[in-house]
């Protein structure tokens, strides 16, 4: 058994007047990508300079206005990357780069050296504040921890003053915020605010990282709301989130944190970060999009994001990953497929409003097609098979016809132990139902009007290689032909269902007819006929179904 007794529940906050649960998100937060720092340091093989440049360009193209480019004092590559971007004028005027620094003098000074000549930058200062870090790692008191944060904040101001040509924005993170007493987190942040003295015109950023996710997402939201209420100079402070994913709740924490008053979100594409990763900015942004909110990030071709990410991080995007996975818009279940098919049909009456069962968003909004929405395997049903034929080949099978053909495809998938491709489905449909000419083949026919609705037909057929002429009368030409075939074959059957539609548009349009026949013994047979002539397509359908009876 797993030894659960060595763990303790995380304490909740006593906040009966919490406001965040009733808050509705109405706009996108300020986004800050930390792919090139948090995401990069989490890789088995960190990105090279060229790879970081390529990733930076993609982040800019996606619409990020704040991008953390690294920890310049950590390595020569990190320092060189910052210098390359600055010296080659690669930072757009509307983009602010961010760099990370510990609250240590030599690291702070090297960080500012890396930024020399930049137009605008966020300098992100942090030190560990959690109870565990203070007690076990640094053996520091609260007073010593606060003093370290304050001295770092003061040095940031001193170094910034040496580069007056640059607009510096200061950011402070009490690292491992979730493991820090919430009242002390506010206390240390306020001490830093006292040093920086922000104004509404010159704001600072207070970032509250869930460095290690320790509790349910609602507890993090309570902590954020408490800090937003008690932080000094709230109108001059941008409250920021940086959630990690140790419990798999980073996206939920971030959404709850925005509801609790946060203005800004740090995260990475696809949640890449230390250990179990961090907030997936793409997912949060697309969640907003699905609620009719402009995410202010462009994922209109989400496969580009997947390609860049997998190429440069050497990691893979899971096929079930929200919005971007290869299978997230695909249904295999028969009931799901049927609901999607009906939803897509209903959308024709209100194309301006997306409402399709099982699909949170329109796949086309992220650059996907409808082709893989439905894939057919042994779990699929008639609705899925019908959807494939409708979407790919313009065939609209009657309901009973759908059921009959779905059994054919289910058996095919079972035998092959894999899903069935659309072209295979179409070919199988033709083989099973369309223009079947053995043993009987229709050669020609002549319609004879008898007055009223009565019609006679004289048709030439080939039966096992021998040409015959058959005749019959009925209420319309199809009924007359059925009577002729009944008389000729000696098998009693009648039409149960008939439908037809045009397959294509224009002067070369073809028609397809669907016939359902029932014998006197109650057995049902299906056939289809295709021709440029609607009457001939109908008679071919009758022959196809009759041949199945004869077989």
Mean of residue pLDDT values: 93
Structural class: alpha/beta
- What is the percentage of strand-forming residues? 15-25%
Helix share, percent? 25-40%
Number of beta strands = 14
Note the main sheet. 8 strands, parallel, barrel
Unreliable parts? none
How many helices? The count is 17
Radius of gyration: 34 Å
Backbone shape: elongated
Query: Distance N terminus to C terminus?
Result: 63 Å
Strand order of the largest sheet: 1-2-3-4-5-6-7-8
Strand and helix map with partners:
Blueprint: E1 30-33, H1 35-41, H2 49-62, E2 66-70, H3 76-87, E3 96-102, H4 105-114, E4 120-128, H5 131-137, H6 142-161, E5 167-175, H7 182-196, E6 204-210, H8 217-230, E7 237-243, H9 250-259, E8 264-267, H10 281-290, H11 302-313, H12 334-346, H13 382-393, H14 399-416, H15 422-433, E9 440-449, E10 454-463, E11 466-475, H16 477-489, E12 493-502, E13 511-519, E14 524-531, H17 534-550
Parallel strand pairs: 1-2, 1-8, 2-3, 3-4, 4-5, 5-6, 6-7, 7-8
Antiparallel strand pairs: 9-10, 10-11, 12-13, 13-14
């Amino acid at each position: 058994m797993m030894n659960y007794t060595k763990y303790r529940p995380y304490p909740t906050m006593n906040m009966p007047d919490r406001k965040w649960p009733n808050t509705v998100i109405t706009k996108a937060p300020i986004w800050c990508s930390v792919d090139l720092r948090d995401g990069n340091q989490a890789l088995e093989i960190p990105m090279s300079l060229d790879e970081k440049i390529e990733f930076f360009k993609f982040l800019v193209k996606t619409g990020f206005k704040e991008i953390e480019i690294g920890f310049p004092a950590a390595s020569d590559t990190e320092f060189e990357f910052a210098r390359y971007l600055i010296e080659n004028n690669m930072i757009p005027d509307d983009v602010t780069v961010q760099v990370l620094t510990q609250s240590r003098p030599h690291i702070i000074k090297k960080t500012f050296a890396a930024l020399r000549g930049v137009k605008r930058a966020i300098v992100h200062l942090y030190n560990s504040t959690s109870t565990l870090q203070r007690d076990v790692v640094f053996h520091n008191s609260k007073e010593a921890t606060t003093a370290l944060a304050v001295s770092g904040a003061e040095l940031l101001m001193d170094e910034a003053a040496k580069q007056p040509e640059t607009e510096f924005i200061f950011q402070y993170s009490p690292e491992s915020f979730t493991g820090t007493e919430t009242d002390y987190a506010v206390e240390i942040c306020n001490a830093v605010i006292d040093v920086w003295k922000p104004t509404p015109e010159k704001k600072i950023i207070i970032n509250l990282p869930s460095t290690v996710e320790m509790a349910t997402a609602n507890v993090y939201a309570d902590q954020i709301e408490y800090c937003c209420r008690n932080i000094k100079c709230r109108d001059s402070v941008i409250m920021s989130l940086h959630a990690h994913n140790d419990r798999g709740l980073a996206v939920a924490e971030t959404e709850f944190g925005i509801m609790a008053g946060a203005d800004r979100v740090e995260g990475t594409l696809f949640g890449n970060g230390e250990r179990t990763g961090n907030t997936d900015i793409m997912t949060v942004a697309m969640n907003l999009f699905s609620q009719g909110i402009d995410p202010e990030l462009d994922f209109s071709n989400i496969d580009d994001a997947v390609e860049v990410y997998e190429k440069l991080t050497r990691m893979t995007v899971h096929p079930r990953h929200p919005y971007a996975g290869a299978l997230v818009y695909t249904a295999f279940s028969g009931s799901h497929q049927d609901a999607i098919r009906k939803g897509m049909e209903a959308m024709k009456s209100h194309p301006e409003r997306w409402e399709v069962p099982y699909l949170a968003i329109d796949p086309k909004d992220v650059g996907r097609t409808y082709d893989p929405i439905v894939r057919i395997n042994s779990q699929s049903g008639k609705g899925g098979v019908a959807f494939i034929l409708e979407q790919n080949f313009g065939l609209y099978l009657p309901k009973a016809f759908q059921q009959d053909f779905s059994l054919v495809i289910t058996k095919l998938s079972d035998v092959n132990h894999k899903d069935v491709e659309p072209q295979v489905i179409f070919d199988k449909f033709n083989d099973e139902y369309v223009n079947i000419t053995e043993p009987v083949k229709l050669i020609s026919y002549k319609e004879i009007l008898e007055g009223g609705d009565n019609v006679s037909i004289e048709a030439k057929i080939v039966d096992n290689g021998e040409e015959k002429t058959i005749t019959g009368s009925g209420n319309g030409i199809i009924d007359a032909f059925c009577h002729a075939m009944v008389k000729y074959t000696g098998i009693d059957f009648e039409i149960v269902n008939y439908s037809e539609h045009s397959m294509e548009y224009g002067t070369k349009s073809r028609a397809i007819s669907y016939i359902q026949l029932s014998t006197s013994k109650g057995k049902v047979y299906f056939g289809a006929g295709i021709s440029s002539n609607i009457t001939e397509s109908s008679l071919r359908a009758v022959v196809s179904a009759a041949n199945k009876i004869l077989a």
